[in-house]
Amino acid sequence: PDGDWSSDVCSSDLISWLAIVWTQSATLAPLLAALHLTLHFTLMGRGWPEAAFVAGVVLFGLGLDQTLFYFGVFTVDGQPSLPPVWISCLWPVLATTCMHAFRGLANRIWLAVVFGGVGGAGSYIAGTNLSDVQFGSPTWGPWIIAALWMGLFPLLLTVARWYNSSGEGEHVKN
């Protein structure tokens, strides 16, 4: 598709994120993530390179969530727990933003670092305020997440740019 979809992408990602967090449902969250992916790839997907990127981010995210819950960065109702299913459903939504809404940050590494720290921590803080997931340490948890996302977000954008350039001829550029 032609044109600038960035405002529509941001809106659909925010709506998907809020719907998944709001439902906190092991049944509805996967359906919402699947609907998000279907709409995304139908309207603006960039073919197999983006699909491979999204799959890789989801697998990485599942492992990261397990690690963060295992080490007590997050708890559920104050108790150690496995990550709820709905949290895992946020990863594909995030991954779809990397080649679209956030692609401009890939060449602005310091802005991506700041955005990752502030936006990453802010997203998790909002999620903990809207759900039964909590920081194991209300003081250190947000700082750990901010530090993690200061490195992770620029890395995701760099990898997305690489995947995007590897499939350059397979899609219409936005």
Overview features:
174 residues; 7 helices; 2 strands; disordered C terminus
Task: Provide a descriptive summary of the structure in words.
This protein is mostly helical and about 170 residues long. About 70% of the residues lie in helices and about 5% in strands. The chain has 7 helices and 2 strands. It has a two-stranded antiparallel ribbon. Helix 2 (about 30-45) runs parallel beside helix 5 (about 90-95) and helix 3 (about 45-70) packs antiparallel against helix 7. The longest helix is centred in the last third of the chain and has 27 residues, at about 140-165. The protein is globular, with a radius of gyration of 16 Å. The protein starts with 5 loop residues before the first helix and ends in an 8-residue tail after the last helix. About 35% of the residues are buried.
